[in-house]
């Protein structure tokens, strides 16, 4: 699948949950997740569309025989959500944007699964 121009602006927090050893949490753009050069060619077109169309703060899980990876959408130039009368576009930051927060704990965001 070919990426859209805005796919470079859509950012995910990628966490290897099961079966991938002690892989560190990474931040990847949607373009990077579509790139065979970065080793992400296992993600199919359907899952890429799910990621692209999910809301900021949504967690989508990818499972294969090797384990499970969670993708938390943290930035979308066209997306966001309202929280306490503030428009939030980066779920990893507080309303003012200065402090790192846990999106599930701070904003009460729920998970979506594949």
Q: Would you write up a description of this structure?
A:
The protein has a domain of 76 residues: Chitinase A, domain 3 (Roll), CATH 3.10.50. With 114 residues, it is an alpha+beta fold. It contains three helices and six strands. Helices cover 16% and strands 29% of the residues. The radius of gyration is 14 Å and the shape is globular. Strands 2-1-4-3 form a four-stranded antiparallel beta sheet. The protein has a two-stranded antiparallel sheet with strand order 5-6.
Short descriptors:
alpha+beta, Chitinase A, domain 3, 4-stranded antiparallel β-sheet, two-stranded antiparallel ribbon, 3 helices, 16% helix
What's the short version?
With 114 residues, the chain is α+β, with helices and mostly antiparallel strands.
Name of the CATH architecture of one domain: Roll
The total beta strand count reads: 6
The main β sheet shows up as:
4 strands, antiparallel
Net shape: globular
**How many helices?**
3
CATH class of one domain reads: Alpha Beta
Order of helices and strands: EEHHEEEEH
For the residues shown, what is the average pLDDT? 81
Strand order across the biggest sheet? 2-1-4-3
Radius of gyration based on Cα positions: 14 Å
Structural class: alpha+beta
Please give the share of residues in helix. 10-25%
Question: Helices, strands, pairings?
Answer:
Blueprint: E1 11-18, E2 26-29, H1 30-33, H2 45-53, E3 59-64, E4 67-75, E5 81-83, E6 86-88, H3 103-107
Antiparallel strand pairs: 1-2, 1-4, 3-4, 5-6
